[in-house]
Specification:
The structure is a homodimer of 197-residue chains.
Chain A: H1 2-9, H2 21-53, E1 57-62, E2 71-76, H3 82-106, H4 112-146, H5 161-196
Helix pairs in contact in A: 2-3, 2-5, 3-4, 4-5
């Protein structure tokens, strides 16, 4: 009875509320799943940012032009590469977005229709942002791991092992965040679909 | 009158068909836009694949270990880099997907509801695929353009100018394809939303 009241408050014509009852139950189930996935998304994106931010590693490396027994400390950190800087910006933004949408997800029962639409629209944009950041960081990290003989780009992961472990974990976390966003977007769309059945 | 018949055939209860009339008009407008964007998506993804496939360039370059006046022909082509191979696979798949969905888009009036849902669900997946491919190829291409002094990866675009122009154009086309897919996904979602107003 309470749920019927809420539906009526959300400007649904009273004559439709009886028809929508099974849909409302399905909607509640999807909304709980939506909330859980958004909390996971927050965890994944914040972890990805933290793991990449703490990737700095300093090693003694030989310098070309000097004798090979003379080694100089050189650092590898994420802001050596524009791809990793973009990655940090994208994943931080996703973390912020996931906080906002988690809070909005709690209030989804109150004015569900418009929030579901906003979720479905913005989730797609963030799928694009997270996927492109994952691709860019992954593409550069792969060169770091394997190098590229054709253009004589040497691999660096044999020297900067900790750095590469952090970058790899961070890319894996953002891949997970991207998959979560795809599912979240699908859930929002599917809930909208359920309403018109 | 004809559109009302089609709606009734698509298992919509007869009592709702009158209510859905303005929504049906809006749906027809969005469907036309959907079709045009899908044709554009096909053009963009096929162009991106063709432009990258034709990027091969052979130049005479000095080889380390030999005297600098001795130059050897070296080719740059997209399958030197795993990121570009992934890009080709992803954009080819998107081209195939856009052919299928363009054909399905023409028949959208017949059984609109389920096709709209499929479009909305799969478009999101392809947003992820195209965005990650664009990110990966863009990230590697940027190293080719500017190099990275921190890890001594030399830029190659000063030598392989035609190759880099092709790669750059191809990445720009796939970025365009990604934006198209975001809009397509939003249109599908928004059309679903219009149905429940």
């Amino acid at each position: 009875m309470e749920s019927t009241d809420k539906r009526t408050a959300a400007s649904t014509p009273a004559s439709e509320s009886a028809l929508l009852h099974p849909a409302a139950a399905a909607s509640a189930k999807y909304s709980a799943l939506d909330f859980v996935l958004r909390v996971l998304l927050l965890a994944a994106s914040v972890s990805a940012v933290v793991v990449m931010a703490t990737s700095k590693q300093t090693e003694m490396v030989p310098v070309p032009g000097l004798p090979p027994n003379i080694r100089v400390p050189f650092s590898a950190e994420f802001n050596d590469s524009p791809a990793f800087i973009y990655f940090m910006a994208a994943l931080s933004l996703t973390g912020l977005y996931s906080i906002i949408t988690t809070l909005a997800s709690i209030s989804v029962f109150r004015k569900a229709k418009s929030i579901l639409l906003l979720f479905a629209l913005f989730d797609v944009v963030f799928v694009g942002i997270v996927a492109s950041a994952t691709g860019a960081a992954g593409g550069v990290a792969y060169i770091g791991l394997r190098g590229n003989d054709h253009v004589r780009w040497n691999k660096i992961c044999n020297v900067y092992d900790k750095f590469c472990r952090h970058i790899g974990s961070s890319v894996a976390l953002s891949l997970f965040a991207g998959v979560l966003l795809v599912f979240l977007s699908m859930i929002s769309t599917f809930t909208l679909y359920k309403r018109i059945r």
